[in-house]
Write a structure and sequence with these properties.
Strand content: 25-35%
CATH class of the largest domain: Alpha Beta
CATH topology of the largest domain: Pseudouridine synthase
Oligomer: single chain
Helix content: 10-25%
Largest sheet: 10 strands, mixed
Distance between the termini: 50 Å
CATH architecture of the largest domain: 2-Layer Sandwich
Radius of gyration: 21 Å
Structural class: alpha+beta
Length: about 325
């Protein structure tokens, strides 16, 4: 089984195939024997955070490697040769202590350097923000981003400032114990006030820039569950709240498209054209103004909840809508 790196949000940095004569051996010991200058404790932390895969599936440290098993070490950042340089990019810091930061990310800001985006990212901004902290190295995968949101999605992200925080927070996301609510404006109305979407998400075979939804009974993609609730109904569009059980790439965008309610102005998933309403000239001009007011998918990461990695205190954050999202809702309120 080949891992789709973009789909998983993880990137393979090491791959080792066990020999035919491999005796049963704990995966942490197996990797310690094969990787130079990597402690067993560090490998165990990586496994706890879901970064050690065997045959494409995350395993714990006590997994016993068998002959011909493919063992992969994943990181939450792509492989690239350039180092991350600090850049003086403003950050909206919602909360910060010695273990973590919570950031309110604006739409349009790429989260992590990758193909075509090696500068001007949130990680470059973090490197600048933390440049006087001798314990934080933006090039060290054991600290930094714990999860991601799309470039054109606004809202809350948590950043780990220490390896312990990265491990503990990463485990919470992996074990689905975090709380995340998104607000989205979608095309169309709903018969019910709330609902549940379950469908595996994988790369669309017809368009590699998109994700597609597959039957949960299939072996295609990764399981994904989104709960939605109607907040406000307008003419031809609806403001919904989405709660994630899982955190797959483009999950809300793909799930909403799948049930016939693409996100408003989501070009990649067909929401940037008039999907509901009339062909009246005034209405078409109004929708055009809406597209111009919020020139991206209408999706905002509204709340974020987790357990503090050291104090165990429940942490909960709520962010205001981004200005363009607010302006979009104001237009529909007046329509």
């Amino acid at each position: 089984m080949e891992l789709d790196e973009e789909e998983s949000g993880l990137y393979e940095h090491f791959r080792i195939v066990a020999d035919k004569g491999q005796s049963l051996l704990r995966v942490d010991k197996f990797l310690q024997d094969h990787l130079q200058d990597v402690s067993r404790n560090r490998i165990q932390r990586a496994a706890e955070a879901g970064f050690i895969l065997v045959n494409g599936k995350a395993v714990k440290s006590n997994y016993k490697v068998k002959p011909l098993d493919t063992v992969s070490v994943m990181l939450d950042r792509p492989r690239y040769e350039t180092t991350i340089e600090p850049e003086d990019i403003p950050l909206d810091v919602v909360y910060e202590d010695d273990q973590l930061m919570v950031i309110n990310k604006p739409a349009g800001l790429v989260v992590h350097p990758g193909c075509g985006n090696y500068t001007g990212t949130l990680v470059n901004a973090l490197a600048w923000h933390m440049k006087d902290n001798p314990d934080f190295d933006a090039n060290d995968p054991e600290v930094g981003l714990v999860h991601r949101i799309d470039k054109d999605t606004s809202g809350l992200l948590v950043i780990a400032k220490t390896p312990l925080a990265k491990t503990k927070l990463g485990a919470q996301f992996f074990n689905k114990t975090t709380s995340r609510l998104y607000h989205a404006l979608v095309w169309g109305d709903f018969n019910d006030m709330e609902g549940r979407i379950e469908g595996n998400i994988a790369r669309d075979p017809k368009d590699r820039l998109k994700m597609a939804v597959f039957d949960p009974a299939s072996e295609i993609g990764k399981s994904a569950v989104t709960h939605w609730r109607v907040l406000r109904r307008y003419n031809f569009v609806t403001l919904v709240e989405c709660r994630l059980e899982t955190g797959r790439t483009h999950q809300i965008r793909a799930h909403m498209k799948h049930i016939g309610h693409p996100l408003f102005n989501d070009e990649r998933y067909g929401g940037s054209q008039i999907l509901r309403g009339t062909r009246d000239g005034n209405y078409m001009q109004f929708v055009k103004r809406c597209f111009e007011a919020c020139p991206r998918q209408a999706l905002h990461a509204k709340t974020l909840g987790f357990e503090h990695p050291t104090t165990k205190e429940p942490m909960y954050f709520d962010s205001p809508w981004a200005p363009d999202f607010q302006q979009l809702i104001d237009l529909w309120e007046k329509s």
